[in-house]
């Protein structure tokens, strides 16, 4: 398989987050053989917010991952992305027309009650990201905080994302937790041309391990016209969603390897060419005689810190080197990212697609307080008796067994 050279069409640079998503898909397919769905959009915006609260080498590393050279660039792109996912046309204040994709994107922040956001960070959180920062008690009411975050995620995704923060997240919350930053993305689009549900038929789906399962496949009349192209080792087909707005059009692309066990190779090629998703596929509209796509519905979740560190974004997670100094005032210790939780849902059927994603970041303070002293002489020890002023030692000895006379 080889990717053709192509012109880049996107003005944004989300290569790191696209690469992160691809690595997760590759790992999931190779190790678990399970479905996976990830939102590079959600990851890009959570990393953008972390960048706003960073400085020094940590900020420089985030610039590299976000494809930006300054916080102005980071915030400008974040603003464009948030507008793109806005449910209304903010330029003229009108709501999306009936049948247009239903989109929403929201952010939220929970802050330890003993901390205050820095004014500059607070301004970005509320102004650009439209998030309200709420004070909470991580130390004594961790279960209540988790329940509140989960309820927010479920409401923000129309009930699709439940239990964003699991037991693992609950165990991560303690008196040193400083912040939880989160976002939620919701998408629902109807196909520009519905599938005829009466033609849906159960067919064989061949797994990469050679086994076969039978699932419902969607189709339309034979020789329908689609945007399609065959490349070396794989094919691409595009299905557009209904849209009345010329400035915002969405479509779903299907990448089908020629070989039944070719998905891993295709993902490995995407890993080597992360910019491919920003390019122009140059698909050609033509008749497709045999066209079947399975219905599917699933959710996927993972903790992303290890994957990010493996890709080179390590400084925000390093409790000794992270420079997340621009988020809060009067922290007892340096801040660092402890965990990054991500969860997605997707359903594709005859009418269209419904999908949602949430990302939550737990930020903790490095412990700066002295540990509680302990001295338990329950094993052999030495002693000394001395006069303090003169420094004369009167006795010195050792105890191996207190019961010995």
UniProtKB/TrEMBL annotation:
Key words of the record: Ribonucleoprotein, Ribosomal protein
Recorded GO MF terms: serine-type endopeptidase inhibitor activity
Keyword Cell cycle carried by entry: no
Serpin domain mapped to chain residues: 25-402
CC terms in the record's Gene Ontology section: extracellular space; ribosome
Entries under InterPro entries matching the protein: Serpin_CS, Serpin_dom, Serpin_fam, Serpin_sf, Serpin_sf_1, Serpin_sf_2
The keyword RNA-binding is annotated on this UniProt entry: no
Any matching Pfam family: Serpin
Highest taxon in the source lineage: Eukaryota
Family from the record: Belongs to the serpin family.
Protein name from the UniProt record: 60S ribosomal protein L7a
């Amino acid at each position: 398989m080889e990717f053709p050279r192509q012109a880049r069409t996107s003005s944004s640079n989300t290569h790191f987050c696209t690469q992160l998503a691809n690595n997760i898909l590759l790992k999931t397919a190779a190790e678990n053989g399970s479905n996976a769905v990830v939102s590079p959009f959600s990851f890009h915006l959570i990393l953008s917010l972390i960048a706003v609260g960073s400085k020094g080498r940590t900020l420089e590393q985030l610039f590299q991952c976000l494809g930006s050279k300054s916080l102005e660039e980071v915030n400008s792109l974040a603003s464009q992305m948030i507008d793109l996912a806005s449910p209304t046309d903010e330029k003229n204040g009108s709501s999306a027309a009936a049948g247009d994709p239903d989109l929403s994107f929201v952010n939220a922040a929970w802050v330890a009650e003993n901390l205050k956001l820095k004014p500059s960070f607070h301004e970005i959180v509320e102004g650009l990201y439209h998030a309200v920062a709420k004070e909470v008690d991580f130390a004594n009411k961790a279960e209540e905080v988790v329940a509140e975050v989960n309820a927010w995620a479920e409401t923000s995704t129309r009930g699709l994302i439940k239990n964003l923060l699991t037991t693992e997240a609950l165990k991560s919350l303690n008196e040193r937790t400083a912040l939880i930053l989160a976002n939620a993305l919701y998408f629902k689009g109807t196909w520009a041309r519905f599938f005829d549900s009466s033609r849906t038929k159960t067919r064989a789906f061949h797994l990469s391990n050679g086994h076969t399962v039978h699932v419902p496949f969607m189709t339309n009349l034979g020789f329908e016209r689609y945007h399609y192209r065959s490349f070396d080792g794989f094919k691409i087909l595009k299905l557009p969603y209904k849209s009345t707005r010329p400035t915002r059009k969405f479509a779903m692309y299907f990448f089908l390897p020629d070989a039944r066990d070719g998905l891993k190779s295709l993902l490995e090629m995407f890993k080597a060419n992360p910019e491919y998703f920003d390019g122009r596929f140059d698909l050609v509209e033509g008749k497709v005689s045999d066209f079947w796509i399975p219905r599917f519905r699933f959710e996927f979740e993972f903790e992303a810190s290890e994957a990010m560190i493996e890709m080179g974004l390590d400084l925000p997670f390093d409790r000794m080197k992270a420079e997340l100094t621009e988020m809060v005032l009067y922290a007892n210790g340096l801040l660092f990212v402890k965990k990054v939780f991500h969860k997605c849902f997707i359903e594709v059927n005859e009418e269209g697609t419904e999908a949602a994603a949430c990302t939550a970041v737990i930020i903790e303070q490095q412990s700066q307080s002295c540990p509680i002293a302990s001295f338990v002489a329950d094993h052999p020890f030495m002693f000394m008796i001395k006069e303090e002023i003169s420094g004369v030692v009167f006795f010195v000895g050792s105890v191996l067994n207190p019961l010995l006379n």
